[in-house]
């Protein structure tokens, strides 16, 4: 397979800036989604509790990883939903299954996040 000069994957400042701009646009779009706003609000609440209960560095690291993971997974779920909606406007069982699976992954992670939060905060009460 022959690669043209424009197809070569070379690192350039312009390409890097574009990548960050696209990622920033993605975050802006994500912040318009109601479910992500719920996760942001929950993260703000947990962060406030973290300051009140003087979490240790390792506890903060765990909380930050869990919150970032939750938000990232919600963004991936939204991307899957938007892609499925783009591909088909009519109801198709496999499209519905794809959306349900992505939402199920978010629910599973959210439940794990709550359990982790309880492990960290209950001893401090």
UniProtKB/TrEMBL annotation:
Residues that coordinate or bind substrate: 15, 74
GO process annotations (BP): phospholipid biosynthetic process
Catalytic machinery residues: 74
Membrane topology type: Multi-pass membrane protein
Chief localisation class: membrane
Cleavable signal peptide: none
PROSITE patterns: DAGK_PROKAR
Positions that bind ATP: 15, 33, 81, 99-100
Stored InterPro entries: DAGK, DAGK_sf, UDPK
Cofactor(s) the record lists: Mg(2+)
Cofactor annotation comment: Mn(2+), Zn(2+), Cd(2+) and Co(2+) support activity to lesser extents.
Gene Ontology CC terms, in alphabetical order: plasma membrane
Protein name (record): Diacylglycerol kinase
Species the sequence originates in: Domibacillus epiphyticus
Upper classification of the organism: Bacteria, Bacillati, Bacillota, Bacilli, Bacillales
